[in-house]
User: What shape does this take?
Amino acid sequence: MFAIESREEIAPRFHRFVVRAPEIARKHRPGQFVIVMPDELGERIPLTIAHADAAAGTITLVVQEMGKTTMAMGRMNGGDGFVSVVGPLGAPTHIERFGTVVCVGGGAGIAPLLPIAAGMKAAGNTVLSILGGRTHELVILQPEMTAASHEIFLTTDDGSLGRKGLVTHALSDLIAERGKPELVVAIGPAVMMRAVAELTRPLGIKTWASLNSIMVDGTGMCGACRVSVGGQTKFVCVDGPEFDAHEVDFDLLVKRLRMYLPEEQVARERYLEQCRCHEEGGGHHG
Amino acid sequence: MADEVKGVPELPKPERMKVPRHPMPTQDHHVRISNFDEVATGYDPETALVEAQRCLQCANPPCVKGCPVGIDIPAFIDLLRKGDVAGSLVKLKETNTLPAICGRVCPQEEQCEVVCVLAKRGEPVAIGRMERFVADWEREHGTASTPELAPPTGMCVAVVGSGPAGLACAAELARAGHAVTIFEALHKPGGVLVYGIPQFRLPKEIVTYEIDALTAMGVTLRPDFVIGKTASVHELFWEFGFDAVFLGTGAGLPYFLGIPGENYIGVLSANEFLTRVNLMKAYDFPRHDTPVRPGRRVAVVGSGNVAMDCLRTAKRLGAEEVICIYRRTRNESPARREELEHAEEEAIDFRWLSAPLAVRGNAEGFVTGMQIQRMELGEPDASGRRRPVPVAGSEYEIAVDTVVMAIGQGPNPLATRSTPGLALNRHGNIVADPETLQTSIPGVFAGGDIVTGAATVILAMGAGKQAARGIHAWLGRLKAGEVEKPRLE
Ligand SMILES: Cc1cc2nc3c(=O)[nH]c(=O)nc-3n(C[C@H](O)[C@H](O)[C@H](O)COP(=O)(O)OP(=O)(O)OC[C@H]3O[C@@H](n4cnc5c(N)ncnc54)[C@H](O)[C@@H]3O)c2cc1C
Ligand SMILES: Cc1cc2nc3c(=O)[nH]c(=O)nc-3n(C[C@H](O)[C@H](O)[C@H](O)COP(=O)(O)OP(=O)(O)OC[C@H]3O[C@@H](n4cnc5c(N)ncnc54)[C@H](O)[C@@H]3O)c2cc1C
Ligand code: SF4
Ligand code: FES
Assistant: This one.
């Protein structure tokens, strides 16, 4: 059992967990993730390590409620525990002094971006971060990302915070104003990463994307996470999660993410139904 | 079932040969294709004892030589015949740590039973079925005694991987008085026994029982711990303080064919398909959260034990049509005969001499079919097997919505690649000394599928035991100051 030390709702449907996992905290490097199985009947889902405190023996996870598993996690609290947390998995981000690095994050993708931005800054890069979300409260981890960057640019779809529009608009303006950065790191929904890749490809800017494929074991044993990069099949959990965004077949990634859509729907509805019965029966809100 | 097993007399030899081999009772195939309960239900005591009477008690028994670990087969059978089931189990356990498991999954038909003297004149003694009976009886009646442990030696061993190799190695070392910790990447121990082999062939309760027995012996289990990620072999020695390391990490890397369309949604490796169903219990979705898409028309590529397990699992998940695609013929199929026959009873559509050329899919990326090439057997190759060659112009299409690739597995490189100085062969398997199973790094031992490539439970179990002897000797030398723990940085 991996004890949850705290859970905090940092934005609507975004939860920050601090979890006791001393061995993982000790070994973590930016870019790596864990596989979490919340309870005995649960699914194993990949979550990026947003922060690790080796001295305290804890890791921080930022979880966006998407379906059954993440919604149920959002109701767990300090004192509860996850039955399984394994990691740190995946290849760490290649961090060195590139020059200027633009970090582009969307939605839950801002969480995995945080340790990378911090690592890039510590390595002597100029880190410019562009964070986007649908509306102001969904642009998570602003203070943390501000600290990890030299400059930060915000965008929202509805214009409630920063500039109205998509992260790609901000990125293309930034490039126009400041010139080409040495590296762009994009993490977020697959469609966002694809848009960033399409923007930087003609400009010849090296771009990395962190892929969020479906996983089971996270150790290269099942192949559920396979993607196509440069025409070759790769396993995201061991070969990635970061890849050269210009080589990634995003179309395939997006399609494969839809594999279990009907089942996810069933699980989510069944879960909500159970919550409802629970609330009616118990007369309180969960 | 009676709670006591009464011995039966020895029959005169000519009489013994007249007793026919007793068939294994099984669940009716009409019933079993809609459940995950065990197919073979096991001998009752009467049947087991009469079967035991058949054994000729050969003075120079060929069956023992046929057994990869050299179980004293006539001895365990004789104890069973006398009604001493506990003694029979002790005899089995002298060489086989996991008899309830091996009795179920060993290919006896090509090991001990094929060479049984009775096989020459009729049907061999049902060695595997009796082995299973003895172990099951003792487990169900709670009479199995915990083995005696040697006094603690103060030495600690890290066993990496909890498949049959790791479990057997841990049991032997614990018995010798060493402190053992098993590190397992998954959240549940057992290796292929839990994530690969389905419930209907090997009930998971049996694996749990064996693992509980290990913890009762003082073995520590660390699931959720990946060597090469959570800690390196070097750290096991120098930060965790272990005195020796055993690598039993198996052959867990799935192979794909490399044909067009293999990444369409609905193409799964056998490992993914079986892991979802067995380890994550997707057959019980949505009570368990992990889904699996059963598919209405499922094709499984390959014809080994892994393929049989996938075919029969797909059937049980409710697939209407389940098709086996194999480029050679039934004769070359590497599956156990029993599994093949069970699959045939379960109305699997076997397409022998068929090679997949491509997977077809629709615009949304879902599998819609496969292109298949007919084959014929040509000239024998170096191994003497006739090589399948394509029949020109014989390509045809089949409609399927799920394709499972069961064409083999290689060594998972997570542990090996992160261990500098560890010698591997060109397939990525660890090179180990045939006697001690020590690797190129002193103090690091290896056995099971990670050394041999995908093989069998009994060979992995035997290797774990053998490595334990090598480790025991090495620990003695370490204690005496003759050797030093390795530095791998
Ligand atoms: C390397 C990696 C790092 C990730 N890091 C984070 C993170 O830090 N924070 C965060 O909120 N999310 C992260 N994700 C995504 C997260 O794993 C999914 O949102 C989660 O699995 C959804 O599960 P669910 O049951 O709540 O939703 P579901 O209803 O099951 O699915 C919702 C969506 O999540 C995707 N998904 C479903 N199951 C899985 C699975 N087993 N693995 C991956 N994706 C799946 C599906 O494509 C679906 O569109 C990461 C994914 C990967 C691959
Ligand atoms: C579906 C299927 C059916 C089979 N049927 C039969 C049969 O009927 N009869 C038969 O005799 N054989 C059968 N086999 C083969 C048999 O199961 C294997 O030969 C045997 O399990 C090998 O044992 P092992 O201990 O070497 O490895 P495994 O059983 O593969 O166990 C290795 C363990 O190590 C863990 N591991 C790997 N890397 C790491 C790491 N870096 N850190 C920590 N842990 C790690 C894995 O998670 C796994 O649990 C079958 C195999 C499969 C896949
Ligand atoms: S070869 Fe057959 S008959 Fe002879 S001892 Fe072995 S099992 Fe008995
Ligand atoms: S998640 Fe299973 S191989 Fe990557």
Notes: The first helix of chain A runs from residue 22 to 27. The pocket of flavin-adenine dinucleotide (ligand 1) is lined by residues A 33, 43, 45-48, 62-64, 66-70, 108, 111-112, 212-215, 241, 257, 264, 268 (CB under 6 Å). Chain A touches chain B through 42 residues (CB under 8 Å). The CA atoms of residues 124 and 264 of chain A lie 43 Å apart.
